[in-house]
Amino acid sequence: MILVGTSGWQYRDWRGPFYPEKLPQRAWLEHYAGQFATVEVNNAFYRLPERDTFAQWRSRTPGDFVVAVKMSRYLTHIRRLNDPAEPVRRFLDHAAGLGDRLGPVLIQLPPNLKAAPSSLDAVLACFPREVRVAVEPRHQSWWTDEVRTVLEKHRAALAWADRLGRPMTPLWRTTDWGYLRFHEGRATPRPRYGRTALRTWAGRLKDAFADAYVYFNNDHGGAAVVDAEAFARQVSAVGLSPSRTP
User: Fold this and answer.
1) pLDDT digits (tens, 9 = 90+) for 181-222
2) In whole angstroms, what is the distance from residue 191 CA to residue 220 CA?
3) Rounded to the nearest 10 degrees, what angle do helices 117-125 and 145-153 cross at?
4) Where does the source fall among the domains of life (predicted)?
5) 55 Cβ contact list (under 8 Å, min separation 6)
6) Total domain count for the chain?
7) Residue 198 lies in a domain
8) Distance between CA atoms of 148 and 209, rounded to whole angstroms?
9) Looking at the domain assignment, is residue 243 inside a domain?
10) Does any domain span residue 75?
């Protein structure tokens, strides 16, 4: 299954294009979960929600819904991967409120953080084997065999990322599942993605994974919703099975 969703669901400019005009914002999650089978929670990066908040999200979504959660910046941007045990433990304790809705944990590194394979190894060692972890480095120094070996050792996915229709990362396959993020397309109206770019990415997924998580982060103007639906069609066209989209 290729799970296709968006990075977040609480965007005011989605009212009208995606959310019914009269639907109160407190009911948006239920509406979203009826249209999509997965979401990536970005706000945990800025402020880790309480465990009760995660539990409420679980209770408000159907049994097949999957929530990917972005790791707190306290570990990645403040501690810069150092002394990871307590931040990871606290993060997982809060996210445990999702129960069986918890999907991958995304660790997005600062763009100015140079490669530190031993630090990454220590971070990944803090996660239980049953928790899927995707890592999105953003400095060119990370693209080494040593880093790839660390990811493979822990069965962590290298998060593939796209901006303006081009890969921002090597297309490494470091485990048996994939994680793909779309940040900004080049189509009109911006930041939409064009059919050719989406078709190309669907083909790349088919060549590498039968199990992957895909999130559109180009939220402006509801572009993420439209592109997620269009990508699901491209996934079907290459013979893979996408999750539900609008």
Assistant:
1) 999 999 999 999 999 999 999 999 999 999 999 999 999 999
2) 7
3) 10
4) Bacteria
5) 97, 98, 99
6) 1
7) yes
8) 17
9) no
10) yes
pLDDT digit string, tens, across residues 137-146: 999 999 999 9
Q: Cα(161)–Cα(104) distance, rounded to whole angstroms?
A: 16
Cα separation, 93 vs 49, in Å, equals 11
Cα gap 161→155, rounded to integer Å: 18
How far is 22 from 94, CA to CA, in rounded Å?
32
> Which of 95, 98, 139 lies closest to 116 in space, CA to CA?
139
Cβ atoms < 10 Å from Cβ of 74:
16
Structure tokens at 170: 């090597």
CB contact at 8 A, 32 and 62: no
Q: What is the rounded distance in angstroms from the CA atom of residue 232 to the CA atom of residue 226?
A: 10
Is residue 206, in this structure, part of any structural domain at all?
yes
Helix, strand, coil distribution of the chain in percent, nearest 5: 40, 20, 40
Kind and range of the H or E run holding 70: strand 66-70
Q: In terms of residue numbers, what domain contains 157?
A: 2-237
pLDDT of residue 79: 96
Residue 206 CB partners (closer than 8 Å, separation 6+):
238, 239, 240
